[in-house]
Structure formats: C-alpha cells, structure tokens
Amino acid sequence: MSNNGFYGPNDKPPLAKWIPLSFQHVFAMFGATVLVPLLTGLSTSTALFTAGTGTLIYILITGAKVPAFLGSSFAFIPALIAIGQNYGAPYAMGGAIFAGLFYCLIAFIIRIAGKEWIDKALPPVVIGSVIIVIGLGLAPTAIKEFFYINSSGAIDDYSLVYASIGAVTLITAVVATIFFKGFFNTLSILIGLLGGYIFTLIMGFFFPAYHLIDFSGVAEARWFALPFLHNDESLKNLGWAWIAPKFNLVAVLTFVIISISTVCEHLGDTLTTSKVVGQDFYKDPGLHRTLLGDGVATAWAAVWGGPPNTTYGENIGVMAITKVYSVWVIGGAAVIAILLSFCEKFGALISTIPTPVLGGICTLLYGLIASSGLRTIVDAGVDYQDKRNLTISSVILVLGIGGATLSFMVGQNFKFVLGGVALATVVGIILNLVIPQTKKD
C-alpha cells in the first residue's frame, strides 16, 4: 500500500476491503458484459464465466502486472448477429476464435520485430481519436437509459421519473467521487449504484406506475446452475449444452477485420491504464504480452460459446476514480464473476438494477472513456495546427460517431457490413499511412 493510502498493482488489500473493491469492478463491468449476449442471443451466464476466466488468463500471461478486466466486446456485436443469422452461432464462434488468434499473431510480430511499425500505423492521433469514438459512440445508449422508457429514444417515451433516478445516481456517484475520503471514496461507483437503486425503490412506492424493481425473478431463479446452457429451451433441461465452433472464410475474414479496431482499442486501453497507474505497460510486461493475453482470452471465450473479450474502459474508469490499481482486486472481481456465473439468483438480482440507474452510472463511465482518448492526444502532444492531424481526427470522429457503414454482398447470401468504430479505425489507419507528413503553417 502506498503512502497516500492507495493501492498499486502489486498491493493486496485486507480482505475486508478487498471483497467490496472487487465487487465494485463487477458492478462496473456487469451491464456491458451481459448486454452483448442479450443483444446477440448468447448466454449471459457463459459471458460472465468467460469474462472471469479470460481475465485470470490475461493476468497469468501478463505476469500479474497489469490491472485490466476483460469483458464482452461491443465491437463484435454486428458480426455476431450477422454471422449467427446467416450461418449459425457456431460459425460466429469460429470467427471469434480467429480474431483471438489474430491478436496472438500481432503479439508475435511485436515480440520479434518490435512495435515501431504499429506506432507508425497507429500513432496517438489515431488511437486517441478512436478511443473518443468508443466513448462517445456509447453516449447515446447511456442517455437513452438515463431519460427514456425504452431504447427508441422517441420523445413520447421521455420520462421525468427516469430522469430523476438517473440524476440521483449520477449525483451520488459524483459526490462520492469528489467529497468522500479514504475507503469510501474508493467505493464511489458502488455507492452511486446503491443510491440510485434505493431511490428507485422509494420512487416505486410513491409512483406505482414506475415500480421498476421486480424481485419475482430472483425468487424463481436457482441457487446453482451450470453457465454453459444454450438459449434453446429444449436444451436447458440437460443442464449442459455445448456446440463446437465451426469455421468458414466469410466468418473468419469478418471477425479478423473487425479485430483491427479492437486491437486499436487494446492499445488505447493499455496506454490509458499506463497513464492512470503511472507505469509503462508497453514496456513491462510488454505490449506483446498484453495483446497475447487479450487474444488467448478471446479465443478461450469463443470456445465456450461466449462473446469475444476486450479490456474494459469501464474498469479503467473505476481505477481512475478510486486510485486503486491492485491486480489482486481485479483478480478478485474475476473470481466473483466466475462464481456468479454458477448462481442464477445473483444474476437475477443484478438484472433488477433499473435501466435509469445504469444510465446514470454509464454517463460518468462512458465520459471517462472519451476523456481518456483526449488525454492520450494531449499527453502525446498531438499538434492540431498541423492540418494532417486535424484531418485524420476529423474523419475518424465523424465516421465513428456518425455511424457510417460500408456494406456489400459477399456471394449471394451474405452481406458484409463494416461500420462504426471498425470502419473509423480502418479509415484512420489508411489516412495516416497515405497522407504525407506536413509542417505547421
């Protein structure tokens, strides 16, 4: 433990602090981790299991030097849906395995040839801009959860009750972050969630039409269940259902191309984590080891039917707020996620967290992701009087946040779609490579 009362990567908090600190990271990652399988038809329990085990794999490969939690990646949602609908979930899992192997290939090249080539392809102006896109690209989701009854965002669905719940959650988290001292300051995210949850219960008492918390699902859920259940109801009675991944060229190509953006995300997250913690993880344990850990974890997740993993900005945001960088805390969160994947009741309880509460917390956390991109650009001293840098950032931001899409048919039955963060990343890399270096006017 450092002299200022915070915990470094190698510090192990006492058990009384360790458990709640780890739970805070579980709460931070939970919504995003389970949302991906909900959107893609995969199992939420499996996603928790593969997130926890994948994080432990990452910690092992990086020598327990990097405090990073790995959870379900949003970047692969379009590919999971498209490949799943056109070819079936096993082919989506096969493509995800190759995405993980692509990570491992890049890690091997970096280990042999160094990272100078990747610095040239992905300089701070590209990485920082892409991180901003990732954070701001998620912003509409947070706002819809904060203010609207459903995800449409239609003005008729605006709810003042939702807005008040989201505001109380956000204000509670901000107050805990700014004004609380010592140990309670490290639990600011968890305190914000609890504050919003309690306020929702109170609102439900005074406004029965907005009784948003229903515990019936918790009562019906089992204490123990294997996390590998298939969503097909006919298979759930077996207690175990695993479908082996399958492979085809279209699925593999789709996932590998999209993984370019997640590699960029990994570089940005690792750089951001380095800045937050105050240690250069690019050098120790080395970028090749962090990429290898991420790749193996992603391939591992796909083998079990879980969505591809990625390092989580939400948990980086928690560390930035709490100043607790302990790998032990991250490992504890991973173990908790694994245990919870076997407990239906806890999963059901977490699922009772109201949408506006998540919206309030995500407003803070997603903003921190975007802000970390700005920090990447500022710390690197990117010169925006240079029209080259200005052009690269401008195009990345508009394509990524605007939701630009590149779509074309592959054969007669499959539509290849590259959009959002993935398209912005590819275009940013190309612009950086083809636009000649310029001097400031």
Mean model confidence by pLDDT:
82
- Contiguous helical run count: 19
Spatially, the strands of the biggest sheet line up as: 1-2
Structural class, by secondary structure, is mainly alpha
* Unreliable parts: 230-240
- Whole-number count of domains: 1
Can you walk me through this structure?
About 2% of the residues have low confidence. Helix 2 packs antiparallel against helix 15 and helix 4 packs antiparallel against helix 13. Helices cover 68% and strands 4% of the residues. Strand 3 and strand 4 form a beta hairpin. The chain has 441 residues and is mainly α. The strands form two sheets. Strands 1-2 form a two-stranded antiparallel ribbon. Strands 3-4 form a two-stranded antiparallel ribbon. The longest helix is centred in the middle third of the chain and has 29 residues. It has one domain.
Give a short synopsis of this structure.
The protein is 68% helix and 4% strand. It is mainly alpha-helical and 441 residues long.
Give keywords.
mainly alpha; two-stranded antiparallel sheet; 441 residues; 4% strand
Indicate the topology.
Elements: H1 15-40, H2 44-61, E1 70-72, H3 77-86, H4 89-113, H5 116-121, H6 124-147, H7 160-179, H8 182-186, H9 188-206, H10 216-220, H11 233-236, H12 249-277, H13 282-303, E2 309-311, H14 313-322, H15 327-341, H16 344-350, H17 355-379, H18 387-402, E3 405-410, E4 414-419, H19 420-434
Antiparallel strand pairs: 1-2, 3-4
Helix pairs in contact: 1-2, 1-15, 2-13, 2-15, 3-4, 4-12, 4-13, 6-12, 6-17, 6-18, 6-19, 7-9, 7-17, 9-17, 12-13, 12-14, 12-19, 14-17, 18-19
